[in-house]
Design a protein that fits this description.
- By secondary structure, the chain is mostly beta strands.
- The chain has six domains: 5-47; 52-161, Immunoglobulin-like (Sandwich), CATH 2.60.40; 168-240, Sandwich (Immunoglobulin-like); 245-317, Immunoglobulin-like; 325-395, Immunoglobulins (Immunoglobulin-like); 405-515, Immunoglobulin-like (Sandwich), CATH 2.60.40.
- The chain contains no helices and 46 strands.
- The radius of gyration is 62 Å and the shape is elongated.
- The protein starts with a strand and ends in a 13-residue tail after the last strand.
Length: 528
């Protein structure tokens, strides 16, 4: 039987397990069909190189809490057993360090070992952050090539921007006359973010984290960090910068209406009402009682701080004059005698009102009185309401039945201990034969009657022809005060013998203040 041989040739690509290099192998096999079988193999190997791994996206940025885009990875010269894995670091890696450590994001199979593009997901990359964070994302071969030279990688830098804080205060406010400006501001601005304020109706924004406004409207705040925008926030600014209204009534004064009340009628909430008037008059409150003619105004401060003045309130005076009167008193002929008072007037319908000593009163135009002193007559015209008054005097009898002394020197003295008492002079309104004046010193004040009992008599003096009695101080011992404080003495000038009518007859009194020893004496000189 004839031996037949068959020859078979094929080629394949193999990766060296030692070098991870791609090899092209060519085999030739010779096979014997009958008889002993043998093979003749011819192998030729050529080195092509390490795989490649790239990405067209070198860097990208995303906003916090936003969906991250996918990352394309392009590989070549891989094998059917290769796959791609995606990891990230928080710092850049050099050399082949990225093949160790890192946080995995996913592993992807290759569809074509010679050239393949994989869409890798970044969805699990942390993106909820309060500050900007940079992640370094690497695409790697898996399993890790044994040849370090073939540990290729594709790097992408991913920047995650934080959310833009848009918390605004206040969200609403009101401009007033007291506070014509309002401050709007962010409570917690995001570092590095830019902010703009837009007022309704204005095409020009204002930059910054705060703004002071003086116009009402809606203010919209926008903010962004990189390409990340915060949610726009608005604040409403209203205006209350108009005062309310105030008006005041007019009025007229007359004899029957000597005072009138002015009232401020106000619309709107207010905090105070002040009044101005003639001759610097001022007042406060809703109402004002006035008794003088002139122009008055109410100045109102409203709750929003705005101030407004009322219309001029004119208060006029009636031209009707008060009645004319002429009153007359008189002198009593004796202590128990009476006097008739009189008054004349041009009042049409007069009303007479007399008042005087000891509660005296009368409506008689010609009353009879028996008490000396001043009497007041008021005449009111009941037709016009106007009134007038006058004062008359009822004099005591010329021969006073109550003789008494009157001081002709000061009624109060201040002396130092050891100083001489100055002369004390009294005048008498009348003197009977044998009458004298006794100068009596007391430690306490006395009544008209008790002054005649007790005390220390310094001297008894006979009045001179001119009814003058003098206590010569130079003939008396110096005053004494052994106390460290001031002391007071009371020197009475008493008519001797004691008058029969004691009531109403008062002795003359000199009050003496004596200082302690060593005080500086005060001197005086009476000028007549």
């Amino acid at each position: 039987m004839k031996n037949e041989y068959a020859t078979v040739q094929w080629g394949m690509a193999l990766r060296s397990w030692l070098t991870s290099l791609l090899l092209i192998a060519s085999f030739q096999i010779q096979a014997q069909v009958a008889g002993d079988t043998f093979f003749t193999t011819s192998i030729t190997a050529n080195r092509v190189g390490c795989p490649t791994l790239t990405t067209p996206v070198n860097a990208l940025s995303i906003c916090a809490n936003a969906t991250a885009p996918s990352l394309p990875l392009v590989s070549t010269n891989t094998t059917s057993t290769d796959s791609l894995r995606l990891v990230y670091f928080t710092s850049p890696q050099s050399g082949t360090a990225m093949y160790s450590g890192g946080t995995p994001l996913g592993t992807y199979a290759l569809t074509n070992p010679l050239a393949s593009t994989v869409t890798a997901s970044l969805a699990s990359l942390p993106n909820a952050t309060g500050t900007a964070v940079v992640y370094y994302v690497y695409g790697l071969l898996a399993p890790t090539p044994s040849d370090p030279a073939c540990r290729v990688s594709a790097q992408t830098t991913v920047t995650v921007f934080p959310g833009v804080s848009m918390a605004l205060t206040p969200r609403s406010t009101t401009l007033t006359c007291t506070n014509p400006y309002a401050a709007l501001s962010l409570t917690n601005p995001t570092p590095g973010a830019s902010y703009s304020w837009w007022r309704s109706g204005s095409p020009t924004p204002t930059s910054g984290t705060s703004i002071t406004v003086s116009q009402p409207g809606t203010y919209t705040l926008t903010g962004r960090l990189g390409n990340c925008w915060g949610t726009a926030t608005t604040a409403t600014v209203s205006s209350d910068q108009r005062p309310g209204t105030v008006s005041v009534n007019q009025g007229a004064l007359s004899c029957s209406t000597p005072t009138i009340t002015l009232t401020a009628t106000i619309t709107g909430r207010y905090s105070s009402v002040l009044w101005t008037g003639p001759w610097g008059m001022a007042g406060e409150g809703n109402t004002l009682s006035v008794s003088a003619p002139g122009i008055y105004r109410a100045i109102v401060t409203f709750a929003n701080g705005c101030v407004d003045a009322s219309n001029p309130a004119r208060v006029s005076q009636s031209p009707v004059p008060p009645p004319l009167i002429a009153a007359q008193g008189g002198a009593m002929a004796c202590k128990t005698c009476s006097v008739m008072l009189s008054v004349e007037t041009d009042a049409t319908v007069p009303l007479f009102i007399w008042t005087g000593p000891d509660g005296f009163s009368s409506t008689d135009p010609f009353p009879i009185v028996s008490k000396e002193g001043s009497y007041t007559i008021v005449v009111k015209d009941l037709e016009t309401g106007c009134e007038a008054y006058d004062i008359v005097v009822v004099e005591a009898p010329t021969n006073d039945p109550c003789p008494q002394p009157f001081l002709d020197t000061p009624d109060a003295l201040t002396l130092c201990a050891g100083e001489l008492l100055p002369d004390v002079r009294v005048l008498l309104n009348q003197v009977n034969p044998g009458d004298q004046v006794a100068f009596v010193l007391f430690d306490t004040p006395q009544s008209s009657s008790s002054a005649y009992t007790g005390g220390t008599t310094l001297a008894t003096v006979t009045p001179e022809v001119d009814l003058v009695a003098t206590l010569p101080g130079s003939t008396l011992p110096p005053v004494q005060n052994r106390s460290p404080v001031e002391q007071t003495r009371y020197l009475y000038a008493l008519l001797i013998p004691q008058p029969g009518l004691v009531d109403g007859c008062t002795p003359a009194l000199v009050t003496i203040t004596i200082g302690p020893g060593g005080c500086m004496p005060l001197s005086f000189r009476r000028i007549k």
